Amino acid sequence: MITTQAWVIHQSEKNGHPVPAELRQEVFSMPDIGSEEVLVEPIYGCWEGNMAHALSRSPVDICEQRREPRVVIGNAGVVRVLKTGDAVAALDEGDLCLVFCNGVWDKYGYPKKIYGYDAPGTIGLLAKQTKLHEKQLIRVPKDSRHSLPQWAAFSLRYITAWANWKVAFGCLKVHQLNGNGAAPIVWGWGGGVAFAEAALARLWGCRSTLISSQEERLRLISDAGIDAIDRRQFSNLDFAKCTSDPSFKDAYREAESIFLETVKERTRGAGVSIFIDYIGLPVLRATLKALGRPGVITTAGWKQGMNLSTLRAIECMNWHVHVHTHYARYSEGQEAVAFAEQKGWVPPVENPKYDWDEIPQLAHNYASGKSSSYFPLFQINQL
Predict the structure, then answer these.
(1) Is the preceding omega at residue 18 within 30 degrees of 0, hence cis?
(2) How many CB atoms sit inside 10 A of residue 166's CB?
């Protein structure tokens, strides 16, 4: 039996009426590692959107879904190997590894559930020690020129971006077999995965643009060589609000007009080749209007508005491809790490601002919008 300290989420005490969860620091026990498992101590972690979903119990209550009274979350970071199972051949004690958070995969390796979130029985990185399957770890490149905090921030967002971008770009290239050879125009609504994907698109010869309303993020976007657009000039671009507040429609139409005029001006009327959208309903209508012909809208998740509707005939006539992916296969994680080490495609982060005891404060800051970082890092154990 393995016993450790962990920040734990408990099942809701109000049956049928889930209330937001709180992180409680407690002793947590788990069975010893199996033959294909590895005992690790997390060093650095990165706070992810799915962790906020878990605390808000939306869109699902993961304690209820997993049928577990206590759950430890956290699925992005860097760990140190303490012990390996008898059948583990590729890892050794002392190895530093990225967490690859595919929790349950199908026969082709595609993720079905995510480690440290909705995968049953998994114990996430908000623990002083935890265990993972050997295929949930990718060794940090030997003598890497990048820091461990950078690899911690890389492990979920950048691997997600890599797998999603390969599909989205592949769809566009099939569309443009007889195109004019112009560099694809790639836009995104600014978030951590979108930032990673726009930076990757730039390395692949595309013209990348990101939209954000936060000064710190706008500076980061520009420093990365990506064109930055201030979203505050069309701050009322929230189609979801129109359904609950009819009086908001005029403000929305004005914001959409400003946005589409910006797209027209910046793309010289061509429209966007690939639009990276990890937001959902509030921006979907405007995003589809911004796409060129042909065009690709791509996502591997959502932030606001999970249920979407489109006019299928219009999307067909405009030759729009809708790409949906979910994290990555293990081989894609390995590809992403190798590419990042070679090309310098890593998050621009510094040392974590939060330590072990400050993790609940980080959770609060993230949920309330006080954390403007794309990659909110925290430290679990000392290196």
Answers:
(1) no
(2) 18
CATH classification (class only), 2-139+350-379: alpha beta
Q: Please write the tens of the pLDDT for every residue from 77-134.
A: 999 999 999 999 999 999 999 999 999 999 999 999 999 999 999 999 999 999 999 9
For 333-359, how does the pLDDT look when each residue is reduced to its tens digit (9 = 90+)? 999 999 999 999 999 998 888 999 999
DSSP code per residue over 142-173: TT-SS-HHHHHHHHHHHHHHHHHHHHHHHHHH
Question: Which residues, including other chains, have CB under 8 Å from residue 87's CB and lie 6 or more apart?
Answer: 35, 36
Residue of 65, 194, 191, 83 lying closest to 137 (CA atoms): 83
Q: How far apart are CA 20 and CA 10, in angstroms?
A: 10
Q: Which amino acid is at 219?
A: R
Burial level of 353, CB count in 10 A (0-12/13-18/19+)?
Answer: middle
pTM of the full predicted structure?
Answer: 0.95
Q: Provide the H-helix boundaries in the chain.
A: 49-56, 62-66, 148-175, 192-203, 215-223, 239-244, 249-267, 281-290, 312-317, 330-343, 359-368
For the chain, domain boundaries: 2-139+350-379, 157-324
The CA distance from 346 to 48, in Å, is 17
* C-beta of residue 202 within 8 angstroms of C-beta of residue 343: no
Q: Tell me phi and psi for residue 325, to 5 degrees.
A: -130, 170
Condensed to tens digits (0 to 9), the pLDDT of residues 180-227 reads 668 999 999 979 999 999 999 999 999 999 999 999 999 999 999 999
d(CA 315, CA 375): 34
CATH code at 157-324: 3.90.180.10
- Identify the three-state secondary structure at position 352: coil
